[in-house]
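[SOLVED] Need 3D model of a three-part complex

Original post:
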Amino acid sequence: MLLLIQYTLIFASVLMLVALGGCFSEHSGVINIGLEGIMVMGALGGALMMKFLPAGTSAPVMLLLVVLAAMALGLIYSLLLAVAAVNFKADQTLVGTAMNLLGTAAATVFVKAMNTAENASNVSSTIQYIDAKKAFLVNIGGFEFNWFMVLALAALVLAYVTLYKTRFGLRLCACGEHPQAADSVGINVYKMRYAGVLISGVLGGLGGVVYITAGVSEWKFENGVAGFGFLALAVMIFGQWKPTRIALAALVFGLFRALGNVYTGFDFLKALNLPSGVYNMLPYIISLVILAFTSKKSRAPKAEGVPYDKGQR
Amino acid sequence: MKQDRNAPTLLQRKGVQSLVASLLCIVIGLLIGFVVLLVINPTGAWVGIKTIVENFLYYPSGAARMKYLGSTLVKTAPLLMCSLSILFAYKVGLFNIGAAGQYVIGAGASLYFALGLGMPWYVCLLAAMAAGALLGGISGALKAYCNVNEVISCIMLNWISLYAVNMVLSTVKEVASPYTLTLSSTNPGAILPSLGLGKLFSNNQYVTIAIPLVVVMAILVWVVLEKTKFGYELKATGFNKYAARYCGMKEKRNIILTMVIAGGLAGMGAALFFLTGFEQWQCTQSSVPGMGFNGIAAAFLGGLNPIGAIFSSYFIQHITNGGAYLDKTMYSAQISDLISSLIIYLCGFVLFFKHFMDMRTAKKQERESVAAKAAEAAKAAEEVKTEEVSDDGKGGDQ
Amino acid sequence: MEQPYAIEMLNITKRFPGIIANDNITLQLKKGEIHALLGENGAGKSTLMSVLFGLYQPEEGIIKKDGREVSIKNPNDANELGIGMVHQHFKLVDVFTVLDNIIMGVEPTKGPFLQKDDARKKVVALSEKYGLMVDPDALVENITVGMQQRTEILKMLYRENEILIFDEPTAVLTPQEIDELMDIMRGLRAEGKSILFITHKLNEIKAVADRCSVLRKGKYIGTVDVASTSKEELSKMMVGRDVDFVVHKEPAKPGDVVLDVEGVTVASKAHKNNAVKDVSFQCRAGEIVCIAGIDGNGQSELVYGLTGIEPLAAGKIVLKGHDVTHASIRKRSTSGVSHIPEDRHKYGLVLDYSLEDNMVLQRYFEPEFVQAGFLKRKAIRAYAEKLIEQYDVRSGQGPITAARSMSGGNQQKAIVAREIDKNPELLIAVQPTRGLDVGAIEYIHSQIVAQRDAGKAVLLVSLELDEVMALSDRILVMYEGEIVGELDPKTTTVQELGLYMAGAKREGK
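Solution:
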């Protein structure tokens, strides 16, 4: 049971971070399908930092540097979307899809190249970070507390305040709802959209590193992040683009995802004798069903996905 | 006011623009790929990029080249089907990112019908089409009736179908490995007929009717989209669903039907690949096969034209296969994935490229017409003056 | 020495690819005056204002503020110079409150955080001073169009703008609301504000403006004193020739009932109430029945219900004696309903299709154009060419022109041609002349009258009172989804019509 709570919280943290990222991007008016790729990049940044920091690094320094590395790589990678969507008015779905594929491919190529350079017989796509990972964990009884859970909570509070209490948030949302109105009062729509996408890069990157350190084993970069970026999008839609609701949705989805990891610990679930594939499918099936019921009355930002062209008004 | 009356110049022709834009994507994509190779290991970079572009030409003997050209074609067939699936949906305004999942479930259905139920190849093919169509239909229905964005529902279904197929095919897998049983040992009747095509490719046993069949399918898709009433309706729905509804087309039915057909195409692609016996399904796969996603690259690279997709699919598969020949001690095969995903990314800029070409020619014509109009305007100005009423003289009464 | 002009735009020229939108235009706005800018659709008024507002940069010409040359690169520059604008399509964010919309762009903050209390006090004070009653905490999507416009005015006043631009502000208002707006404008002038009033309605210019500048086809025609210039002179300057405001038509000879509507109710997409409530009327062959009303009172939904685009919540529709209440859109179309939709880009055309493909949009499935599932391209081409010839639809490349690249007037002509050539029993025309120039309006009016004279039933939905009065044989006024009155255009006045439209007056049932 404790294990279930632990996994639920950590998966919910991942989903919340990434969904909040998506939320910023979409409030600025850019659909970010590429969150999956951004997560991979963030994971890569974090994993590299863990690998290359000397073994004796103190836990807070380790935590800080890993988080920064993940955010930085996520941010840089999200520039690909910002440039294409804002400056070149590209099809945002197409570009996002390309970024997902590119993220996994680029990370794999990079990690494999690094591994073979170190040792010619090593063609795996994993990075060693098991020891470094311990910096994030605190054991409280049988419960493995993870500092990333606090970070996710902080991100939630920050996102809420930013979106609803600050000038930046007001202007950001205006760009996603009615960019012409924002432009007419002198708000630079392009800049705000860049800001939205880059924030989603930062949060997505952070979510990526949290994701790969959540599991027991080391992550194979060939596998990307197994659709978590997409689940986060579902969380965002289910959360109606509002931070507090996104947090709730993330907990629900996190629970179903966690079941897949720990169902063997529950006698009644074990007795059902379902193949593990069923539990793997569960979060996706649930999200599909929920979306079917909640999409009719969507409160998506009205101008999302529509490139803003100063000339057209 | 527009310069429409002038015949379009070469660069303004849509087809030429698409071709130029696609070639640009390819060149830039390969260039970046080359840079990546250079960064990883400068000494082998030139050989590396050459290997990728050469693919089967890497073999010295003509017979071997033919044989591996055949292998590339065997894998081009499903890719083309996936890209047809994506471009067909795109013409109707739907982004079928679910081709990947429809391909997966098509593979599952065809292999299960072949290995589990011992059916002949044509039944397996139909089963794959039906399974893909069903999956596409779900996304279509969710879009039409529940307003669920097809991209999101397709992605969810991709993962659901992956896990489902892994489970189902585990019942027909080899005991000692995660791979499904081979067709040749279990049910040779499920292998697609070759009709002697294999002989043309140095006895490549995997070359079957699949290859001519997919070309026929591409032409068929083109005919349906461009020549038929059905295509007229579908494209109208894609361009403007409100106008489609206004003139009495059933836009909901069209959306579902489109996804059903798109799903069927992708499912058929899977069957046309797995029923050759070229590959077995690995039941422990933890990521959705890239075939459907590469289909996106092929569809856009082909200018969203079914005939263009034939060539772009071949190109994508060509470099993907070429990647497999890379020196593993230096580079990983995923370089090809990297290049093809770069090409998809660059396809996002195609509209911009085309716009750029339009602007260049438009500006040129503009300069010519401004000169012509200046003469007209001078004449008109005189007429205006005669009726002008002005109070400029009385300004300043404050 | 004090400068008489608040703002001067001197010799402005703005070009777009293939078109000169503003050709050497000069506009001088005196301090404390209401200056009308008159011109037809496409005359270049909006472009000129966008230049003033910093949305476009002109190729030639200069702008002076208080006699000093200024450079306006973006709306912020314009705002700093004290220039504000109420756009024709309001620039308001639906899901924000009135207050948030007003402060957006000039938000009072403490650090990064919004400080709304003082702003709220200022807005309340301003709205009391100028009689602009709006609840600052209401969401924009929940308030009326008139209140949204007042929000836009408050936006300018909050920024302490001295030069106020009103772009076609009366299009969305009732005659009574228009009077209120005129009062507000006079009040602003009394406070020393300078107002530019963009319009193509001569009555309003006569009512409120001091001077008037006229544009035509991107060119400057002249500036006149309103008091000493007649409406006829103004209209001649605007159009370039004498305009006949009267539509010539014989008295109607109504025949059999073509459309019989009974108790029709249509649900709304925007709110929980029904958009159309228990509406009943008849439309006979050989008459033009006009549905008048302010935008958003259920006219669109009524038409959706009649044509089958939206299902009915209740009621019955009988067409030529056949019940079509549950018939599909296609069935109604083939049984003789033609529909010129209000939004030609959203409903009327597939803009990415060629002109010929659009011409057969309602008929492509007929045996004339299709055989065994394949389109008969030659027949479609021939048919399109026939319509283009007959209805004088002008386009760059004839049948293969992309609909998107055609002018608005010719797009509308194409739709009119398509719908009329179907030879309908009932022609439903919704705002058929919206955004068109006088020539195209005259042509479309004459086509509608010709249909009536050919014995068709015509149901016209219009927001333009002049059009309602000129074309209709009977007027039905819709207010909040109900028909509140039936009027005879020959005996009623615009003022009376306005009272019905505003809901101030209604016939007892």
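Edit: Chain B touches chain A through 50 residues (CB under 8 Å).
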